[in-house]
Each structure stands twice: as C-alpha cells, then as structure tokens.
Amino acid sequence: MDKNILKTDIPPEILEKIKRFCAYQERCPFDIRNKLISWKVSSSQINEIIAILEQEDYLNEERFAEAYVRGKFTIKGWGLQKISHALHAKHVSKNHIDAALAIISDRQQMEKMKQVALKWLQTHPEEDNEKCKQKLFNYLVSKGYNYHLCSKMYFQYFSQWNKEKENVKSKK
User: Fold this and answer.
1) What is the pLDDT of residues 103-123, one digit of tens each?
2) Terminal-to-terminal C-alpha distance of the chain
3) pTM for the model
4) Which of 18, 99, 118, 159 has the maximum number of C-beta atoms within 10 A of its C-beta?
C-alpha cells in the first residue's frame, strides 16, 4: 500500500479488519460506510478508507451489483424489480444496476418464476382455484417479478400447475 495515500492517521487494524470484511464477500460502499460508522470511525477517515479499498480493488460497485443480482435471483428466487429496489436502497448507481440486471434474460426469469410458483403451489394446498390463482399471482409480484411477466406466466402455465398440484396432492 502506498503510504502517500493516507492523509489522516487511520489505525492499521481498522484498515486490515475492513479489508477482511470486503474479502469475505462482495460489498458496496454503503455497507462499508455503515460498518465503519458502527466501529466509530470518523467520516473523513471513512471516505479515505473507501478510496483506499476502491484503489486496491477490495471494493468495486459494479462487481458487487453483478454478484448481488446473481445471488438474489439464483438463491433467493427474487425478481428483477425487487433486486433493483434493494440495490437502490444500498445507493448503487443506476448504471451499475442496469448493467447487472441485464445479465438475467427473460427466459431465465420465466424459468425461475415457474420454479418459484411450483414450489409455492406445493406448500399451499388451496381448495378454491380462484383464490389460489390470486394468492399465487400476488406472491409472484411480491417476490419482485414484473406484473406483465406474472400475467403471462399466470395464463400460460396455470393449467399445467393445476395438473402438477393435483399430482402432488395424490402422492400425499
């Protein structure tokens, strides 16, 4: 590390601790700032630490946004709208958000939405078909899937889901 970067006296243990924090998983500047505030680091030191982390590539907002999108989409089954809102809440720039969301295709979204819907149907045995349809639609929208994609999925696949749901019920 270039000693000329440091204009204030940043305790080396704080710098090393935050580097380990960043190395564990991708972080955004907002997360780093909050962590440093919780450690009672001054705001001038926080700005300097963030600059050092970015310069040494411990912190990269674009890389964070892409990892966040992949993780929330693949593991949590979130839709792109929910992911976008969560990234906005972390103060990630719109350009990075748009670039990260572009890695997920419409086909991937439809497949994931179908998986999420089938999983939901297996755990919600509703007798009333219309009530079940509405609850499922609301659930998909709450997971962050686009209203129009939900509508398309709803009409395209619901008869198939009903058949699969009946198969699940008959196996119990």
Assistant:
1) 999 899 999 998 998 898 888
2) 62
3) 0.82
4) 18
